[in-house]
Design goal:
By secondary structure, the chain is mainly β. The chain binds copper (II) ion (CU).
Length: about 600
């Protein structure tokens, strides 16, 4: 499409394109005419258009562009596929024929319509638009077993339609078991105002852990073993094999003297990354899809699913610089068999060469994300309203010793969705006899702040940090247990007598993924302003596969009464097709169904 502002080559070396953010003049392209006003310039990115700027609360006010951006994502699978670092993978899944799907791109206020065609052979699918609030469009959230039945394979399809009410950087991924780890991912960019000026938008920079085994084999493995190190790390879909040297470093071109916006996205299944750019600082302007007051840092910790929009000032001596990924927390939140995962930031005009300065290892973030982000549009809550009760406490526990060996439970129950009978079926039928394994937490009250205390097995022998992701909302991070390294023996229960003073209600960090510390607690708040069935889950694919999720059923009566007839019809059509397909599926369901099994038939024959 003409309006795309990023060019990515096959397997994706990232290329800056002139005019990365559309301007009003100089073209007859519809995107640009309906896009930002003339006030949105390199020196004033805060302005967007008449009546809309960085201070506009997008949950209240969104431009009415009348534009719909249409995309088609076709999913396929291949055997014996040669990956970017030269290793042949037995199984891979592709979006539009590529390992990294196309960037879904729109302007703030546009509608986005994505037709998903499932040409996989035996797997269903559903595509989740991570971070998108889906206000009033819960049935387009793409959470199979919750908001829809999976789209059946061999040509099944459905169209997702939702509003770009927010703006910023995000990604889309399959929510069918661990399928996204087989390659069903891609970036989302919604153009809007920014909290700091910049000259050039470099576009999305997806980072992902990369494994030579299929995600399904890894789910099977992690049901009775610890998580394996990734075989490699890919930057914008490419990377170099640490031993053979096959493959190419991702290369990002900087223009000397210019300020560049980079949209860093962690699309991993398990690896949490510490990122740094030798010789440069990052100026952070947004976290997930929340613009923040800018601040400078030498390194950033990106939990699985998190994004940071940063400005990189190309003022150092022109040359080539390593963009490094390191691991912290004693590998409690991931590691890689590639000891030095990296990409190259190359200055225009400099010789094409490998960087020479390896840089210094950034400080250990200990698997914790920063709580010092200050959102531009504030949200304040009365933290003294918080009273710990069983109803607002979500204990996370690792259950060891059953079958499978490792099962993750919240509130004493591991989620295990029923693909053919999603939660929305219950809602539409007015049936409140939910299955225990749907892990429903019903939330009522209109536009009320609700508080959720997640306690990470403080009495267990063993605890790991978890990146918790909420659908349908951004949450406020109202509090967290004291920071200690994940390997520490320190355990923290929430103690109202002392911990109430740790809470922060005045415009705390707000985003859609936050770290739950090992052996500690996290207190989140969201407002009941979006009727829907919204998952709160760990974004480590192996853990949500193992059960680590609840399903907030927010205002079910309001939800039932607000579903458009067209959405009901499509829900029923896809479910009928899935229910016809499923009895003929050759592979059994072995996990929660949220993040299916896809292994060689021979493996089942030997069991
Ligand atoms: Cu987890």
């Amino acid at each position: 499409m003409k309006f795309l502002t990023y060019a990515t080559t096959l397997l994706g070396t990232l290329t800056a394109v002139v005019g990365a953010v559309p301007t009003r003049s100089g073209t007859k392209n519809k995107y640009i005419r309906d896009g930002p006003g003339p006030c949105h310039t390199p020196s004033n990115r805060a302005c967007w258009a008449s009546g809309f700027d960085i201070y506009t609360d997008y949950e209240v006010n969104t431009p009415n562009t009348g534009v719909t951006r249409k995309y088609t994502l076709t999913l396929t699978e291949e055997d014996n596929w040669t990956g970017p670092d030269g290793v042949v993978k037995e199984k891979i899944m592709l979006v539009n024929g590529k390992i990294m799907g196309p960037t879904i791109e729109a302007n703030w206020g546009d509608w986005i319509e994505v037709n998903v065609i499932n040409n996989l052979l035996t797997n269903g699918t559903s595509i989740h638009w991570h971070g998108i609030h889906q206000k009033g469009s819960n049935l387009h959230d793409g959470a199979n077993g919750v908001t829809e039945c999976p789209i059946p394979p061999n040509g099944g399809q459905r169209t997702y339609r939702f509003r770009a009410q927010q703006y910023g950087t995000s990604w889309y991924h399959s929510h069918f078991s661990a399928q996204y780890g087989n390659g069903i991912v891609g970036p989302i960019v919604i153009h809007g105002p920014a909290s700091l000026p910049y000259d050039i938008d470099l576009g999305p920079f997806p980072l992902v852990d990369y494994y030579y085994k299929s995600a399904d084999e890894l789910v099977h493995h992690t049901q009775s073993n610890g998580p394996p190190f990734s075989d490699n790390v890919l930057f914008n879909g490419t990377g170099v094999h640490p031993q053979t040297g096959h493959g190419q470093y991702a290369k990002v071109t900087l223009t000397p003297g210019k300020r560049h916006r980079l949209r860093i996205i962690n699309m991993s299944t398990e690896n949490h990354f510490q990122v740094s750019l030798v010789g440069h600082q990052f100026t952070v302007i947004a976290a997930d899809m929340v613009p923040v007051h800018s601040y400078n840092t030498d390194s950033l910790f990106l939990a699985v699913g998190q994004r940071y929009d940063v400005i990189i000032d190309a003022s150092p001596t022109p040359g080539n610089y390593w963009f490094n990924v390191t691991f912290g927390g004693g590998f409690a939140c991931g590691g890689s068999l590639n000891p030095h995962p990296a990409a190259i930031f190359h200055y225009e005009g400099a010789p094409d060469a490998l960087p020479t300065n390896p840089g210094v290892t950034p400080r250990d973030h200990n698997c914790l994300d920063t709580l010092d982000l200050v959102p531009v549009v504030p949200r304040n809550v009365q933290v003294n309203q918080f009273v710990k009760k069983p109803e607002n406490t979500l204990p996370v526990e690792l259950s060891i010793g059953g079958t499978p060996l490792f099962v993750w439970k919240v509130n004493g129950s591991a989620i295990d969705v029923d693909w053919g009978n999603p939660v929305l079926q219950y809602v539409m039928d007015g049936n409140t006899s939910y299955r225990q394994a749907d892990n429903i937490v019903e939330v009522n009250g209109v536009n009320q702040w609700t508080y959720w205390l997640i306690e990470n097995d403080p009495n267990g022998a063993f605890s790991l940090p978890h990146p918790m992701h909420l659908h349908g909302h951004d949450f406020l991070i109202v509090g967290r247990s004291p920071d200690v390294p994940p390997g520490s023996n320190q355990r923290y229960n929430f103690d109202p007598a002392t911990d109430i003073y740790r809470l922060r209600g005045q415009n705390p960090t707000r985003r859609d993924v936050a770290m739950l510390p090992a052996g500690g607690w996290l207190l989140l708040a969201f407002r009941t302003d979006n009727p829907g069935a919204w998952l709160l889950h760990c974004h480590i694919a192996w853990h949500v596969s193992g059960g680590l999720s609840v399903d907030f059923l927010e205002r079910p009566d309001d939800l039932r009464n607000s579903i458009p007839q067209h959405d009901k019809d499509e829900f029923n059509r896809v479910c009928n097709e899935w229910r016809t397909y499923w009895p003929n599926n050759p592979y059994p369901k072995i996990d929660s169904g949220l993040k299916h099994r896809w292994v060689e038939e021979s493996e089942w024959l030997v069991r």
